Structures are given as C-alpha cells and as structure tokens.
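WARN retry 2 of 3 for item q-0093 after timeout on previous attempt; input resubmitted unchanged.
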Amino acid sequence: TKLDLILCQIGDSELKSLLINTTITELDLSENEFGEEGIELFRMNRSILTLRLAQNLIGDNGARLLAQNTTITELDISENLIGDQGAAYLLTNKTIVSLYLDSNQIGSYRRTAE
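OK item q-0093 returned
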C-alpha cells in the first residue's frame, strides 16, 4: 500500500498514529514537520520498504536512527542537512539498495556496489 502525505504538516504525534498501520509499504512524507522523535519511530518499523523524507530536518542523528532500520530498501532523504557523519551511518545499512542524498552537506562519502 502506498501513501503520499507531502506537505501535510505531519508532526511527531501524527507520525506515531500513522506508523501503527502495518499495511503501508511505501510512504512519502517529504516536506513535513517532524523531528528526531518522529525519525526514532522508523528505526523499528518493519512494514515500510520505500520511504521518502526529502526536505525535513533530519540531520546526522536522524540518519543514524534511519540506518538502524532493517526493512527499508529505498530511502530518499534529500535536502536534510545530513553531513559526512550521517552519510557514514547510512553506509553501514545493508538493506538499503537505493539511497538518495542530493542537496545535503556531504563531502566525500559515496555508496558503492559491494
């Protein structure tokens, strides 16, 4: 099941309610208003395979939390103030096969095929 909630002013409390649903496999929450508390909820989610979070304020710690998810295979976190440390965290995740990091603050980290 696919759900697009772009620009819907989704905050941490709305995100908690949304992630109770285990039938959503593709979720687009680009340009919303949740912070690290919301990102923490994705760490343990086991139903979402494709997650788009472009233009939120995720940062390096949010990238660290997302890197701990073992279900997401496609992740778009473009334009999220992620730096070299956040990119390094994401490179440790072995389940993400498509990773979009454009317009972040990353220097020399690039994901390569293994």
